[in-house]
């Protein structure tokens, strides 16, 4: 990991107005944090941790699956500014259906449903910045 790469990530934090960013690359894991506007990012290095948690995990109610953000970026609920949202609370979805888009570093990433079910909660608003692991949707799985 080179200083220029870390500076690039710090610039991304400024662009997306983030207070924290955690990155793992080339066996090195580091976290940048900002404590208010005037403070500079702090760099902390640590050995790589165990595997990241699954994108969807069971809540206390085993019928509800949480779809979490796999990256830091901007959440978009619709394919275009004036378009209808992909899903709303109560929408029925099938595995593979697009739920939203997360824009990260000028790339649009579609987030899809990992199971058949009904949307019971949406955890982000349109144009909201989300962090890695942020719960985007809760889906109540369909029973066979």
UniProtKB/TrEMBL annotation:
It holds the Pfam family Biotin_lipoyl. Pathway: Lipid metabolism; fatty acid biosynthesis. GO terms for cellular component: acetyl-CoA carboxylase complex. Signal peptide: none annotated. One of its GO terms (biological process) is fatty acid biosynthetic process. PROSITE patterns: BIOTIN (PS00188), BIOTINYL_LIPOYL (PS50968). PANTHER family: OXALOACETATE DECARBOXYLASE ALPHA CHAIN. This is Biotin carboxyl carrier protein of acetyl-CoA carboxylase. It comes from Candidatus Avoscillospira avicola. The lineage of its organism: Bacteria, Bacillati, Bacillota, Clostridia, Eubacteriales.
């Amino acid at each position: 990991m080179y200083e220029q790469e870390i500076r690039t990530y710090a610039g991304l934090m400024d662009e997306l107005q983030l207070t924290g960013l955690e990155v793992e690359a080339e066996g090195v894991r580091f976290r940048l944090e900002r404590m208010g506007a005037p403070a500079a990012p702090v760099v902390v290095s640590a050995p790589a941790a165990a595997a990241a948690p699954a994108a969807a995990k069971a809540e206390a109610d085993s019928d509800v699956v949480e779809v979490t953000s796999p990256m830091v970026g901007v959440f978009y609920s619709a394919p275009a500014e004036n378009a209808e949202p992909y899903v709303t609370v109560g929408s029925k979805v099938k595995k593979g259906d697009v739920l939203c888009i997360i824009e990260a570093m000028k790339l649009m990433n579609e987030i899809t449903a990992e199971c058949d079910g009904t949307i019971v909660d949406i955890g982000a608003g349109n144009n909201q910045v989300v962090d890695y692991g942020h719960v985007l949707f809760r889906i109540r799985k369909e029973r066979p």
